[in-house]
Target: Adenylosuccinate lyase
Amino acid sequence: MTLPEQPLSPLDGRYRTAVVGLGEHLSEAGLNRARVLVEVEWLIFLTDRELFGAHRLSAEQAASLRSLVDDFGQADIDELASLEATTRHDVKAVEYYVRARLEKLGLSDVAELTHFACTSEDINNLAYALTIGSAVREVWMPALDTVIAGLTDRAVAHRAVPMLAHTHGQPATPTTVGKEFAVFVHRLRRIVVRIEQTEYLGKFSGATGTFAAHVAADSSQDWPELSREFVESLGLVWNPLTTQIESHDWQAELYSAISHANRVLHNLATDIWTYISLGYFTQIPQAGATGSSTMPHKINPIRFENAEANLELSSALLDSLSATLVTSRLQRDLTDSTTQRNVGVALGHSLLALDNLRRGLGEIAVNEVRLAEDLDGNWEILGEAIQTVIRAEITAGTSSISDPYALLKDLTRGRRVGQAELVEFVRALDISDGAKDRLAALTPAGYAGLASKMVGFLDS
Model:
């Protein structure tokens, strides 16, 4: 029995609602709409300058042409698909589509300026820059910002909640829950700055980047300057030196930065998963949700596990794009044609992960009782504080102890030490009475240094 036609990718099936916003920009239809935009704007650009005796379009005529982009819908998508089935060339189909509209609008006298002196990549590279830029700025970045805002809220709310740290998986000097969230906020904010500084480059210089056809048509024009003006009119940065293709270095830089953000988020997901397993965070039951098909007591941390997997898939694709897009044989090969069509898939998996992290962060609570229990069960972590105070006392001339580190190692390494034993040990030390009093009053929960105040660095 044959199934009805089904989506092959889970991004277009099971998870579609979480990533549908990217389709507005990075689908084939979104790419074609952007191609139409570039073709239309180039034609208007040329007629505005009355090149080759073309008449300048009226405001109404220009608006009618631009409406091809504004009103682009399913009928246009279908028509372009039909044209491409004949032309076997996606950009040529767009050119024919625009020419047909010029005929309907009574503008056939400027039809030959459609796709004038352009190679397909002149249209494509600008269309990709426009769609990738809008997808990142309007869909992916807001999702990341929402996660960062959620992390920031938790950093502030839990800034003073002490938590036993773990280095190498072993009990270590305490921190606070808020400070650990703040670390991720700080890391992600730095990457956001890099992403926001991305230059979306565009080239518009013909078959091999030499303006040869342009000069053949009219050698009196400053074609590089006209190219720069046109590219910048689209809100892009002009790339003056290319082969047939824009070199894609900006894409490699952008995907590298997004992949870096993915990996920081992956670190966040694995840390929260571990804190849940330690009981430091509890999961808030969701009405009607099933954690396990056979163990009814379980609430599985699926949001963070799903995020992990999708972040790994996204980074794998982004890393591949970064590595392959920067290479094109001689003046042009078509390897980038297929790879660039997967930008939406790469960002889609990241966007899905962000959605899971956002929801996951809203479904956990800090278990202060469990945190306090773990702190109270690990008094030996104060060995660091004691040996550091002894060193200060030796320097001040108020102690004659010869090797404070070895002294504390003998007391604490690989064994549990309780409060009473530590206080007794401190009282017997050759240090000043003031130092003894400070150390005797110290508790694991009170040994978090400036962690709470450090959350304030997020405001600077």
Q: What stands out?
A: The two ends are 63 Å apart (CA to CA). Strands lie at 162-167, 170-176, 201-202, 237-238, 281-283, 364-366.
